[in-house]
Q: What sequence folds into this?
């Protein structure tokens, strides 16, 4: 099973940018669809974005489309989430996930990172 470690979270003002990283262990990184989810207090974990195994196809939640960009680097076994034009409602713990297919439901995800906090101040 793949191990995932996120980094890059922090505190930023509204309108600012952050880039999250998720490093995956093992030699099977390219066999996984990689995704980002987020969870705010008192709210169910929600899908943010996903990238196909080769990074050719990307998927976004409507709430982040046009502001966030997902990418992956197979040489570094790392997936990124570039977040621009951040809003206070983007505040959440962001989780990296690995799965065999594109899954928008967190219940279908088998491998999670520990999460990284993103706080956007108004």
A:
């Amino acid at each position: 099973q793949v191990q995932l470690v996120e980094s890059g979270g922090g505190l930023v003002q509204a309108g600012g940018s952050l880039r999250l990283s998720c490093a995956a262990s093992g030699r099977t990184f390219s066999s996984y669809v990689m995704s980002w989810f987020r969870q705010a207090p008192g709210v169910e974990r929600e899908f943010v974005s996903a990238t196909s195994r080769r990074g050719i196809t990307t998927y976004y939640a409507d709430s982040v489309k046009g502001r966030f960009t997902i990418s992956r680097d197979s040489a570094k076994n790392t997936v990124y989430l570039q977040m621009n034009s951040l809003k206070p409602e983007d505040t959440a713990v962001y989780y990296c996930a690995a799965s065999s297919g594109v899954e928008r439901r967190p219940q279908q995800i088998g491998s999670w990172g520990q999460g990284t906090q993103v706080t956007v101040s108004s």
Observations:
- The chain is about 0% helix and 50% strand.
- The radius of gyration is 13 Å.
- The mean pLDDT is 96.
- The longest strand covers residues 92-99.
